[in-house]
Amino acid sequence: MDATLADDRPLVSKGWIGSYGVMYLGINIAWSAPSQLLIANQILAWHPEDKEARFAFIMSLGGLLGLVVSPLVGILSDKTRTRFGRRAPWIVIGAVCAAASLVALAFSPNYVLLVIGWAAFQIFIAAAVNASQAIPPDRVSRQQYGVVSGVMGIGWTMALVVGTLLGESLPLVAAYLASAALLLALCVPYLIWHNKASVLPTQDDQVAESSALTAASRGAVMDAELVGGFTHRTETAARSLADYRDFMWVFISRLAATLGNTVALFYLLYYLRDHIKLADPDQGVLILTVIYAVVVIGASILSGRASDAAGVRKPFVFFSCLGLAGACLVMAFAHSFTAVIIAAVVLGASWGTFTAIDQALINQVLPYANTRGRDIGFMSMAVALPNLASPVLAAFALLVLGGYPGLYLISGLLAVIGAISVLAVRGSR
């Protein structure tokens, strides 16, 4: 997106930001409750003997579908033209159909229908997530990108808490229905009162509708684009891979740290039930999630300010990765819930610091101004791939590497790889 166009936009109101944040919260609550507790409990009731493998399969399938559907919806919504804008129709379709899928999941009588229902849900919730994430670049002034991104981060973290609270405090069917209701209800304020403000013509629309371009000028523009495209391709081919050296090391660091964190959290309910022998593992997940979320938010705010004041990024990323490894080491050998709580505090502080500083480091190592969008899109795969791979790796570690100690040791090793990788970055402090 052209930064000049973004700077020319009027500032969005606090009401706009608030209603958008509420909508983003509702969309994330929808997947949080099922993935944190509900599906795991359903599988536990039906198949206690192989619950880990079945849970890994259904989560992996959902991650794969989300990875495929999200960019597809992005392409389709870019081409959508309605009086409600490009994104709102996909949010409505995604939210309504995802809510219907949650209702179906609530009444699934067996594992096969649970898999089908979860697959449908992941397709539709991916549509809503993608379309909602595309709204800020469409509408928000560049001066407010940070504020809106912060609201999105808070919404995502709070969704983990609310979703876990729903799963722990309500009966299974009621928790699914409440998740579906919140998904729809929290989307309403933005779609009704603030969506009109985001229905802006795109730059392509303005060019297409303009009568100022004559046939000759259009031909000149096409010629310039052909020459420019050829020149750009020639220059790109001549660029050395060395220009992407720091970028790739940051990618490896982010991939390893994210994978370690997602593997560490994947079997949390079963870990508390089978390894820690906690009497109420659902309540344990809720307690840990609340602690984790509060510490993540606090660490993100404090570390971001400290990093800006110090003018350095790498030490924060390095030590946050080591903190992740330390938390995993505690969980590998913990035999009490108190030890797990300590690990949750360390994990939350480390992950909050990592997520706050990692994005700043990414921005500093982008090699070319004219390929930032493409490069950031590639970097996002360092988050998407762990979400897809973590169920398989967690199941493998649990079954082959000696149970939960092996699982958490492999998570810690991944975090250490993330720490070592960031040290290889040369072009940033």
From TrEMBL:
Residues passing through the membrane, by range? 21-43, 55-76, 88-107, 113-133, 145-167, 173-193, 247-272, 284-304, 316-334, 340-357, 378-401, 407-425
Keywords (alphabetical) are: Membrane, Transmembrane, Transmembrane helix
Which residues does the UniProt record annotate as the domain Major facilitator superfamily (MFS) profile? 246-429
Report how it sits in the membrane.
Multi-pass membrane protein
Task: Give the main localization category.
Answer: membrane
**Subcellular localization, per the record?**
Cell membrane
GO terms of molecular function: transmembrane transporter activity
List the GO terms this entry assigns under cellular component, sorted alphabetically: plasma membrane
The record ties this protein, via PANTHER family, to: MAJOR FACILITATOR SUPERFAMILY (MFS) PROFILE DOMAIN-CONTAINING PROTEIN, PTHR23528
| Annotated protein name in UniProt | Major facilitator superfamily (MFS) profile domain-containing protein
Q: What is the lineage of its organism?
A: Bacteria, Bacillati, Actinomycetota, Actinomycetes, Actinomycetales
